[in-house]
Amino acid sequence: MEKWQTVERIPAPYFIPKFGPLNGMRVLMSGSIVAGPFGAQLMADFGAEVIHLEIPGLGDSYRSQRPAISSEDGTKEMAAAWCQKRNELSFGLNLNFNKNPKSKEIFYSLIKQVDVWLENIVWLDKLGIDCKELLQVNPKLVIVHVSGFGRPQFGGNPDICDRASYDPIGQCEGGVANMVGFPDGPPIYGQPFLNDYLTGVYGFGTCLAGYINVLNGGMGQEIDLAQVETQARNLDDHWVAYMNLGVEKSRVGNRVPIFQPASMHKCKDGRYAFIGAFGKAAYDRCIRGLGLDPEEYRWDLCGNSKAAVDSPMGVALYNHIDKWFSERTAQEAQNHMDKFKTPVGIVKAPKDMYADPHWHDRGNFIKYPVPAIDNKEVEAFGFVPKFMETPGQVWRGQVEVGDDTERIMSELLGYTDVEIESLKGQGIID
Question: What are the pLDDT digits (tens) for 286-306?
């Protein structure tokens, strides 16, 4: 009998405090950078016990991104990007079963202990990982695959599924780059890693959906999540317009072309602000706020369709709005239109939001020590969404690669100290 077959399930949480709505859920994460790991990070924020499998000695390549935060004595550093990867256990394990058969034993033991395996390794077959076997090891296991173009088991051209991908590739192939920019300019890649983070959020929901299905009596399963498809799904009505009406939407710059007010404007202080008002009631309030008469600049004649927006009256309205903003600072424009319940959004950078007490009062900025840089305190963004009764929390900052390996092997997987020592120096766990 192989060792993994003798492993008894230990309920979660075992290594972390009890908190959050996901208390009792255990997640195994393997992969790197953003698209997969961000989904695991969101689960860790809300109480799931997350074990991040990293390459021994190297870790997630995101750890080496710059800029980095250094320990007080300057001997250690951690990528600023990685400092947001809090609340996770780090387990060093080489997942190449073909070269390291003993890794398989450890991995299968882990699989018996988790509810979800979230991975964005992609080349599972080349590593000797068989998902059908994993579902035999743990029939309740939810396997979430994150890749650029999807896995061929779920359909599609295998050659396309095998293509490599990064965030900008997903934005281009998934259609969003075609939508960002001005009509007479090139497509624009949206920062910061919009497709990766979007896929991570989809991954968060995907893991929970699969997990809830199991809690309701269902069985484990494989779930396929492709970067390109998450981006394409967010195009939403673009598909309906094209497939049913033959309408192809494309770049429109800083205006919504089918109604107004809905446009970006430069203000007197050089800042930019966007104004939006959809529907007759909202439109009429906005027109009054702009000092105009809704009966003269009627919704049906100036704002409720592309034809109205492009009409002489519609153009006159847009020009008035543009001039109106140019005569006021962004804050003056926003404060004034707030009185008319018309939304005006000022383009802001992180420093602008951080300077606003409102976002501090909502608890959006938190501090916690990071063990990997000698417990130096870092400040980061907090938790979204906010739960009244089961809030998220940080129980630990980031650790060095594999800091939790031996403890997990001993206490969760049942390995003795002698067995752990015997595995060292073979490129398996160190």
Answer: 999 999 999 999 999 999 999
Instruction: Calculate Rg over the CA atoms of the chain.
Output: 26
- Quickly name the fold that domain 262-341 has: formyl-coa transferase, domain 3 (3.30.1540)
Report whether 134 contacts 1 (CB < 8 A).
no
Residue 102 identity (one-letter amino acid): K
The CATH number corresponding to 3-234+363-423 among 3.40.50.10540, 3.40.47.10, 3.50.50.60, 3.40.140.10 equals 3.40.50.10540
Q: Which of the four pLDDT bands, split at 50, 70 and 90, describes residue 261? A: very high
Which among 191, 316, 312, 320 is positioned nearest to 265, based on CA atoms?
320
Strand order in the sheet with 272-276: 262-266, 272-276, 344-346
Structural domain spans, the chain: 3-234+363-423, 262-341
CB of 51 closer than 8 Å to CB of 28: yes
pLDDT of residue 123: 82
| CA distances for 59 relative to 30, 62, 82, 256, 380, angstroms | 10, 8, 11, 44, 22
